[in-house]
Write a structure and sequence with these properties.
Layout: H1 4-24, E1 34-38, H2 39-48, H3 50-56, E2 68-73, E3 77-85, E4 91-92, E5 100-103, E6 111-113, H4 117-127, H5 137-159, H6 172-184, H7 202-208, E7 215-217, E8 219-224, E9 228-230, H8 240-244, H9 247-259, E10 267-272, H10 274-279, H11 281-284, H12 286-291, E11 294-296, E12 303-306, E13 312-315, E14 321-324, E15 330-331, E16 334-335, H13 340-358, H14 361-366, E17 367-369, E18 371-378, H15 389-392, E19 394-399, H16 402-405, E20 410-414, H17 429-436, H18 444-467, E21 470-471, E22 479-484, E23 487-493, E24 500-501, H19 503-508, H20 531-558, H21 562-579, H22 584-596, E25 599-604, H23 607-610, E26 624-629, H24 631-653
Parallel strand pairs: 17-23
Antiparallel strand pairs: 1-2, 2-3, 3-4, 3-5, 5-6, 7-12, 8-10, 8-11, 9-18, 12-13, 13-14, 14-19, 15-16, 18-19, 20-22, 21-24, 22-23, 25-26
């Protein structure tokens, strides 16, 4: 069981993410029982109300930076917490500010306590007890259970936190694994229940998550060849064992197939995650197991490690082949299966992006794609691609580009690793990079230069793809920086199945509709009639999730103001727009959406989990989109206020 210190750290992290999600998604707005008080109003209250003054004394030292105070009246208590005006969202809560619950009784001193995330969310659910559209009772129970598991699994993760280690100085394979482990400690930034793998206890988390770094031996399922569909070209004979196993390991599988009368092409051996083999498949494919369509093999072979995505595994040896496997667990509210449809659509998306690379000289040298065309899946006799079966027994063998893995000087750095830091020496990846460039963390200008280089490289590639009518799912887990001798040489993309497109721009650039296979009658997020909608996914996943997580980690670790880094972010966007050599139509869309419009789209993470789900593709992550003020408008307001204060100060003291 994790110790108290670790449990407290887990609770603080989850509480900060939860409160900020509630604020961003406006859960506490427009309720008579919830007040948002200005600092002046709060200061006036505590001079007259002894109970509120006692609450004030519970706040942390950081609360001096707060600009407002939320006061939420319950039946016989009040929850109070300070917030500050923010660029990313209207109000931001820092865990250092403190959050206090005061149980009030007339004529008595207030009983003060710190509510847990679970208790706080319980009060939110009660706040919406008469609004089942916004908060479905069943969804609320599930979400509370997710918080409970998140707290426990986050504490597992933190208790196993490794000492800060060099990443860029390690050999490439070891470097990538270390970066994946580092990224695993944060998972999906700002998501209060991102860490939860529902139903997993300590044994599963310690065996199968990246943070623990344990070896995973693949299990294997022999599937009758007539029931296997793959992404291979017709007539091409290739099997998972050929790519994932050594000669000796392949012999072990081959010998068992022959010994059991399953050889000579009658069956294909498909790798299975060991947890999936024992916990999910016995019930999912019960009939197939009884009829001998699927036969579990006794041989466990092929040694891999979990990456931060958990279901994608990287090899112990120097092989360029990683493997992505279905897992019947819920994470981020979605089931982590791997459907044949997703694999097919990912293959179509990759084909389209490879065509795009040929049409852009810069993408040709700076954009790299993992090969995700080698996949195999069980398909039932009725060939129903939307049935449950292809989702739970399949495998994608992801091949990393030879020109990258064969270059000993290249390091592959998932952008998600840049959003994580520890308090120890070498706590942030940029520390090591700074040293290699002859600088250190005491030089803010050097830190900002590296931040600038990462952002401009990333933005330019995103904008060149957007110009052609497409936008990948560019969050930090999918985007891998290609780093060499202290420079960003390009961007490697993986997990192509969510490439979104605007067909008119594709066709205008001589590209074709990828012809995705979609479930009839269900909404999809892959095709967009308007380029602005396509760009919204870049704003949400690319900036608000990926880049803001990096910005915030750099701000906190190196002591740089978020305002100054947002200014740098704006400069990087403007520079990337220029470098991307965009037609006027595309540049105008970018300028309008990024800098002119008063609002930006906001990817909701809590509301979709609480709402009653209708017309949702089975297993997909719940999706919701709201709005926030354009961060660059807020940035300008901050700068204007700062300039006015400087003017008043200068006039007062004749500086």
């Amino acid at each position: 069981m994790p110790n108290k210190l670790t449990r407290d750290r887990a609770e603080q992290r989850v509480m900060e993410d939860l409160v900020n999600a509630l604020l961003a998604e406006q859960f506490l707005d427009d309720h008579a029982s919830v007040e948002r008080l200005s600092k002046g109003e709060w200061d006036a209250i505590i001079t007259q109300d002894a109970q509120m003054k006692a609450v004030q004394e519970q706040f942390g030292a950081g609360a001096d930076l707060a600009t407002h105070v939320y006061r939420w009246h319950l039946e016989d208590a009040v929850i109070v917490f300070p917030v500050r005006a923010s660029i990313a969202q209207p109000y931001w809560f820092e865990i250092s500010y403190g959050l206090c619950k005061a149980s009030l009784h007339a004529g008595k001193a207030a009983l003060l306590s710190k509510p847990s995330p679970l208790e706080l969310m319980g009060h939110v659910v009660m706040l919406y007890m008469n609004d089942p559209v916004a908060v479905d009772p069943y969804g609320a129970v599930k979400f509370l259970h997710m918080i409970e598991q998140t707290l426990l699994q986050t504490s597992f993760s933190l208790e196993n936190e490794q000492p800060a280690a060099h990443i860029l100085g390690l050999p490439q394979r070891a470097s990538l694994l270390a970066a994946e482990r580092k990224a695993g400690y944060r998972d999906r930034p700002f998501h209060p229940v991102s860490k939860v793998k529902q139903g997993w206890a300590y044994d599963e988390c310690s065996s199968y998550t990246a943070e623990f770094g344990r070896r995973i031996k693949l299990n294997w399922m022999a599937v009758k060849q007539d029931y296997v569909v793959s992404g291979l070209e017709e007539g091409k004979e290739l099997f998972p064992v050929d790519l994932l196993l050594s000669d000796e390991e392949r012999s072990q599988i081959s010998n068992e197939l022959n010994r059991r009368g399953l050889g000579e092409g009658a069956y294909t051996a498909i790798p299975v995650h060991p947890w999936q083999m024992s916990a999910i498949l016995p019930e999912q494919i019960k009939r197939e197991l009884e009829e001998g369509i699927c036969i579990p093999l006794e041989t466990e072979t092929g040694t891999f490690y979990a990456t931060s995505s958990v279901r994608s595994l990287m090899p112990e040896n120097e092989s360029p082949y990683h493997v992505k496997l279905p897992l019947g667990i819920y994470s981020l509210g979605g089931l982590r299966y791997l459907s044949a449809i997703k694999l097919m659509n990912g293959q179509q998306a990759e084909w389209l992006m490879r065509q795009a690379v040929e049409r852009d000289a810069v993408l040709k040298t700076k954009l790299f794609l993992c090969d995700e065309t080698k996949w195999w899946a069980y398909l039932p006799e009725d060939r129903d691609l939307f049935a449950d079966y292809p989702r739970h027994l399949s495998a994608l063998v992801r091949e990393y580009p030879a020109e990258l893995v064969q270059d000993a000087d290249i390091r592959l750095l998932p952008m998600s690793a840049l959003s994580v830091y520890a308090s120890a020496e070498n706590g942030h990846v940029l520390d090591e990079w700074l040293k290699l460039m002859g600088s250190d963390r005491s030089e803010p200008a050097a830190v900002v230069r590296l931040f600038h280089e990462v952002l401009v490289s990333y933005f330019e590639i995103c904008f060149r793809l957007f110009r052609l009518g497409m936008m990948p799912e560019v969050h930090g887990q999918n985007c891998v920086l290609v780093w060499k001798h202290g420079k960003i040489e390009g961007l490697l993309l993986r997990d192509h199945d969510a490439l979104r497109v605007h067909v008119p721009w594709l066709k205008a650039n001589g590209l074709e509709d990828p012809a995705y296979t979609l479930r009839a009658g269900y909404p999809n997020s892959l095709y967009h009639e308007h380029p602005q909608k396509l760009l919204s996914f870049f704003q949400m996943l690319g900036i608000q999730v990926n880049i803001y997580a990096i910005l915030r980690s750099v701000s906190q670790y190196y002591g740089l103001s978020e305002e100054s880094l947002w200014e740098e972010l704006q400069t990087c966007l403007e520079e990337a727009i220029q470098k991307a050599e965009l037609p006027d139509e595309v540049a105008n869309v970018l300028q309008e959406a990024l800098f002119v419009k008063a609002v930006w789209p906001w990817k909701q993470v809590v509301r979709p989990l609480l709402k009653k789900q209708t017309m949702r593709v089975p297993g997909s992550m719940p999706y919701g989109q709201g709005e926030v003020a354009n961060p660059f408008h807020i940035l300008n307001d901050f700068k204007n206020r700062r300039d006015r204060l400087c003017f008043v100060f200068n006039q007062e003291y004749k500086v």
